Amino acid sequence: MVPLSYYLVLSGILFACGVTGFLIKRNIITIFMSIELMLNGVNLSFVAFAAQWGKLSGQIFVFFVMVVAAAEAAVGLAIIIAVYRTRETLNVDQVNLLKL
Amino acid sequence: MQPVATTFFFYLLSGAAILGGVLVITRKNPVHSALALIMTLLAQAGLYLMLYAPFVAGVQIILYAGGIMVLFLFVIMLVNIEKVQKQEQFNKQWLVGIVAAAALGVLFVLVYMKGESLFPKHVVRLAEESNTQEIAVLLYGQYMFAFEIASLLLLVAIIGAVVMAKKRI
Amino acid sequence: MTPSLHLVLIPILPLIGAAVNGLLGKRFSRQAVATVALAFCGAAFAMALWIALRFSSLPIPLTEYVAPWIRAGSFQADFAFYLDQLSLVMMLVVTGVGFLIHIYAVGYMWEEGGFYRFFSYLNLFMFFMLTLVLANNYLLMFIGWEGVGLASYLLIGFWFTKDAAAAAGKKAFIVNRIGDFGFLIALFLLIKHFGSLNFADVFGTIVENSTQYPVETAGAGLLTAIGLLLMVGAAGKSAQLPLYVWLPDAMEGPTPVSALIHAATMVTAGVYMVARSHVIFDRAPMALTVVAIVGTLTALFAATIGICQTDIKKVLAYSTISQLGYMFLACGVAAYSAGIFHLMTHAFFKGLLFLAAGSVIHAIGGEQDMRKMGGLRDHIPATFWTMTAATFAIAGFPPFAGFFSKDEILWRASQVSLAYWGIGVFTAFLTSFYMFRLWFLTFFGEYRGDQEATQAHGGIHATGSRAGVPAPHGHSGIHESPKIMLIPLAILAILSVMGGWIGAHRFELFLAPVFSSHQTAHLVALTSEQAGQITAMEHLEWVFTAISVAAAALGLYLAWLLYRDRPQLPQRIANALGGFYHAVANKYYVDELYAVLFVKPVVDGSTSILWHGVDQNVIDDTLNDSAEAARDVSDSVRHMQSGNLRSYAGWVALGAAGVIAYMIWMGTR
Amino acid sequence: MNGAAQVTPQAVEYIRILPEIVLTIFGIIIMMLDPLMDERRSQRTLGAVGLVGALAAIVATLYQSQYPGVGFWGMVNVDSFSVFFHFLVTAVTAVVILTSYEYMEVQQIRAGEYYGLILFGAVGMCLMSSAVELVLIFIALEISSISTYILAGFRRRAAISSESSVKYFLLGSFATAFFLYGVALMFGATGSTSIAVIGQVLASGQPPVLAYVGIALMFVGLGFKVAAAPFHVWTPDVYEGAPAPIVGFMSTAPKAAVFAVLLRILFEAHAPGRLWLIWVVAALSMTLGNIGALVQDNVKRLLAYSSIAHAGYLLVAFAALPANGIPAAMFYTASYAAMNVGAFAVVSHLASAGERYVTMEDYAGLGRRSPLLAATLTIFLLSLIGIPATGGFFAKFYVFSAALQANLVGLVIIGVLNSAVGAYYYLRVIVVMYMREARQEVPVSPVPLGLGVALAISAVATIYLGVLPGRVLEYATRSAGDLLR
């Protein structure tokens, strides 16, 4: 059997992957995907903890996280389209009218 | 059902998940990134199964891989992918970014090392056969209110998506 | 059952006046505005007098609860007013002198635009000032304390749309906030340790638990800390070293404002606060010593600057700072009643001096430079005679009011340390010198002003856009002020002459119930050796008096010599002294020093404030540097704001890593 | 709790979510009316419906306060604490709708979704303050966040508005992921997502490392939402780009709600190791906010930095002892809401079409052109400085006094120094308004009724809190007692 902490380390790695992606990518859509990656890292640890405590509430939480992720995806992609319309770019480094 | 060769499957699936994750953030083409993300999601669904969460695994495949990622692909197609692709993909200070993220990752790992005594060697076995039913009871019982209010969340999301995406206001 | 005095009416009446004038004044005629302002202010004065007349039959101290205010847990503060001998004196001074200055202002401001606004602010000021002196707890006092600052800011800054006034108003406001922060922290400490801000509760606790709150001779304790913080607040409001810089600039305001706020009442709030908190100071000898030293040094320092000023109002401003120094010296040697006595006489003669100066300025069409005055004695005799009374009073000649109070302070100071006394006497000499210098320059000799300017008031363009200057009148020549301005002058002149005749001793006896606890500390503050000296010196009091009067006379003589007899001498002396004179004439470059000391290292937050308050003409270069520095710091903060999403995320991630690392460390400790 | 025994919720439990129900219903009404009306009519009608909804929610809140207790199997808890924040959020909503009334017409924005989203957002904020289960807190937080993401991008004609929206959205989701990870770790450490249970577990013994990290991550997520340094970087950009009334909304109502969540998590759940964490974050927020504001010329941006600083002052109360800190924090949120909503109402009126006039220059001479408006803004600015007789003074006073009672002398000194620095830039606006001549004439249209009422409410609330803070503070003290019990 695989110890629980292995799952948790994996979730940490996925989360860190997401953070890295957020920090280094230029394309807004990929940045958004990085957020999904982070959320998946979180979900994995929820399921793992649910298994540790033998409580289903962890799995329920994952279910709600997915709902929220779906909602965020819908809104986020719409916002991205709006930005693309006004700017003709998806490069975050060029989305910087507001500063200082 | 008695677990079979869990160690093997764990390493296989987690390897796939990590590989997918790394590909998401290293591919230039957003379509490739999206496909890599789908790989991660599927691998994770497998891991959920190993953690006695078949319902969540199913939702993961249907909702995440099937719904959200398709939405992503749609949007990628919608915007001018040629132009997007030509743009430089990485920040000049990507090294700094990786270092910061790695620091974060190390911190998480550190947590699990420090908290090792906290975690049981073996997870509690949950009933898999009745999993979906139990979740249903919880969702429509104890979590009823959260479940209902989530519909409001989706309503807001729909309105928001329509507002942001429509051409004129 | 104590008789209800409706003390609340005293502050409320001016507030009503302010509201009426502020809201409706625009539609009123000038007469109506003046009537409203005077009526409400006068009513407050009348009430104060009525209370003073019944005072002996009242159970003192008397607390009047108006309404509950804040009750949160154990902490409680109410709208409540407190009447004892001290607040009675303050109340009479504030309403009395305030009323007179209101009358004067009607004449002075008659020609000005925004007449109603001016009186609205003036009444508002009275409201806050009376709240301050009548409050029964520190919190309400603080409300008044900040309120008078705000009113003063409005009156200095809002009145004139020119930049100097705006800058002066801002400087006053911000320097005061630095002082206030000391005051506030003192209040927090009081809440923490006494759970209350009521005077009665706090002082009662301290007096009753003398073992818990001993006289902190050995080392600095809680009460010393509170005392020092209160002193920071007092130094800000009462323009003591090192926070005095705002007061001279505040002279940009109209002269009645200078008289009321920056001479007679508001600036003395710090003295009142220290005297009110005497229970705390009595048990904190170190704080008391600081008060005394700050007071002495301020008195000396400001007096030396006063010698070289040429602007008539600036001389008076520095003189005010110097006199306030005397009051703090008195408090610092635990002679609170002497300090309050001087506060009262000072209110009379300094108020008078400002009003008379205003009358002079008014007479010659807005000129404030004394070098351009002279020989005005015959033109404006009424002003001359009242000014003379005030000058003799401030110089400390018997039997004028200032003599009694200043003499008492010096005598009490001499019992603690001869150094205080020595500096005090020297300052008295300087005071006499610069006041008579002012007197001679203004009223004697030949008129040195531009005759043309006074005829046609054309000089207004050169200097006359200064604040406080009435608009040019239709008539020409040097002219006496209208009666409505002269009557207050006359009354204040009488008070300046006779105000001291009550005698310091009788005044002290009157205030004794308030300061009863001070005796113990006073004695403790002295070493036994000094106590021995006191008895030896007791019969020497008249010697000390003689010396200080002689000092004043010397000042008079010197001023006569230099500015009347041989007017060319001052320039020669100035040349001989060279650098020193220059330093003094430029106010010791304190503004500049502040710029260098505080402004350059803008890392400290408060610094970026001071630079804007620093005099712009003299130190353009330093100023530019400091502006740059402030910009640099602010810029480095702004660089977090690159506009780049990823760098933002980087900050968040970095912060998160820091927070997590810290929490892991906490958790595994 | 006893999900098996009780199958359907009782009537009283619906009362415990009554304001939310009312707001949702009115939101849906607006969404249904919107397509039925032509553009011109819809502006006024839908605004009126939204206002009625917000007012009805206030009434519902007052009614609800008589039925305290837990509802829906331990999901929501109506106590005086949550009623306080319900009232605050709904009142702010009403005032913001009043402010938007004119703004929407001037900016020519279609109103339907706008008012709907404000009401839905308010549902999320209300729920945040009464939710006692992390699942619900999370969903409520998302409802309020998603509404504000979209509202921030509502000035579709301006490129900066959509930029503000996308920045807010991406960073917000980023922070949400941190919050979620924190919740996951908390669940792992305690085996529950109910705040009460977590509190019991954490109080019963030495909390595991996992709980510490969980708190840290949740704090990152919530700190982002309240714009506490170093998670504040989004604030100036987003506030500058978003529509002015919405900035007034999102700098107060969601912040208040998140502070409520933070209070519950930190104190009701007995979060460990909070002291120095909050100490540093509070000090950083105050300092960075104030220094950043010093050289700003855009008034919206200036107020954004100021809101960072105010988040810092507020967090000072969190570092204090709960018995003093909670009421101080509650009082601060209330008075901050009053003055900030008011200030942004003035800003949104002056901005005029396309938000052209938002720099310091444009405020020059306002004191002469529009004395009443300038005077009102002066009241709010004085309150933001913390001058007595305004709410801002007592807010700071209580916060610092609470901190000093917890012996946080250093933090108090930093705070008071910072408020002295802060005086400078607020004063700059006042000075510009009254003492500078306008270089070019900026038109000021007369104040319409709705805005006038909004300003009056904010000004009266600011002064009320400054003159008679007693009742609010007493109430807050009582709720703190409820919360800690």
Summarize the structure.
The complex is a heterotetramer of chains A (100), B (169), C (669) and D (485). By secondary structure, chain A is an all-alpha fold.
Question: How would you summarize the topology of this molecule?
Answer:
The complex is a heterotetramer of chains A (100), B (169), C (669) and D (485).
Chain A: H1 4-24, H2 28-53, H3 57-87
Helix pairs in contact in A: 1-2, 2-3
Chain B: H1 6-26, H2 30-50, H3 54-78, H4 81-86, H5 94-114, H6 131-139, H7 144-165
Chain C: H1 9-24, H2 30-53, E1 62-72, E2 75-83, H3 85-108, H4 115-134, H5 138-158, H6 163-194, H7 199-208, H8 222-237, H9 246-249, H10 255-264, H11 269-276, H12 278-282, H13 285-308, H14 312-332, H15 336-363, H16 381-395, H17 401-416, H18 418-443, H19 451-456, H20 483-498, H21 504-515, H22 518-525, H23 528-537, H24 541-565, H25 569-577, H26 579-585, H27 590-599, H28 607-613, H29 620-638, H30 645-668
Antiparallel strand pairs in C: 1-2
Helix pairs in contact in C: 1-2, 1-4, 2-3, 2-4, 3-4, 3-10, 3-15, 3-20, 4-5, 5-6, 6-8, 6-28, 8-11, 8-13, 10-15, 13-14, 13-18, 14-15, 14-17, 14-18, 15-16, 15-17, 15-20, 15-21, 16-18, 16-20, 17-18, 17-24, 18-24, 27-28, 27-29, 28-29
Strand residue content of chain B: under 5%
CATH class of the largest domain in chain B: Mainly Alpha
Structural class of chain C: mainly alpha
Helical coverage of chain B, percent range: over 70%
Amino-to-carboxy terminus distance of chain C: 62 Å
Mean pLDDT over the residues of chain B: 81
Number of helices of chain C: 30
Number of helices of chain B: 7
Task: Give the integer mean of the pLDDT values of chain C.
Answer: 77
Shape estimate of chain B: globular
Radius of gyration of chain B, taken over Cα atoms and rounded to an integer in Å: 20 Å
Poorly predicted spans of chain B: none
